[in-house]
Amino acid sequence: MISPKPMDPKTGFHCFKTSAYKLHYYETLSCIKFIVLTDPNTPDLREELKKIYSSIFVEYVIKNPLYQPNTVVKSEMFINQLNQHIKQLTWYL
């Protein structure tokens, strides 16, 4: 079960690995959750998810005056920047 409140980053839930996939989880202090499914051999992405939040999500979503919390993110700039960023990572196939 995932807690509805952010956890201590040193002891909280970061990832879960099965034989088929690895689930990576990051929750911000404002309760925004990032979840990524990868190959089971991918290293922990917690720091990468923090970077995505601070440098992409905040810049292209949170700072957008048209953004409505608890709605689907439809910003093309955010989606494009996120895709571009992820495709540059070593674990991306």
Keywords:
single chain, 93 residues, alpha+beta, Beta-Lactamase, three-stranded antiparallel beta sheet, ER-Golgi transport, golgi apparatus
Estimated helix fraction: 25-40%
User: How is the biggest beta sheet arranged?
Assistant: 3 strands, antiparallel
Q: How confident overall, as mean pLDDT? A: 87
Secondary structure category:
alpha+beta
**How is the quaternary structure best described?**
single chain
Order of helices and strands: EEEHH
Number of domains as seen in the coordinates: 1
Shape: globular
The CATH architecture name reads 2-Layer Sandwich
Subunit structure: Part of the multisubunit transport protein particle (TRAPP) complex.
Subcellular location: Endoplasmic reticulum; Golgi apparatus, cis-Golgi network
GO biological process, one term: endoplasmic reticulum to Golgi vesicle-mediated transport
Pfam families: Sybindin (PF04099)
Short précis:
It contains 2 helices and 3 strands, in the order E-E-E-H-H. By secondary structure, it is an alpha+beta fold. The protein has one domain: 2-Layer Sandwich (Beta-Lactamase), CATH 3.30.450.
What does this structure look like?
By secondary structure, this protein is of the alpha+beta class. The protein has one domain (15-87): Beta-Lactamase. Helices cover 31% and strands 16% of the residues. The protein has helices at residues 46-62, 76-87, and strands spanning 15-17, 22-27, 33-38. A three-stranded antiparallel beta sheet has the order 1-2-3, covered by helices on one side. Helix 1 runs antiparallel to helix 2. The model has no long low-confidence stretch (mean pLDDT 87).
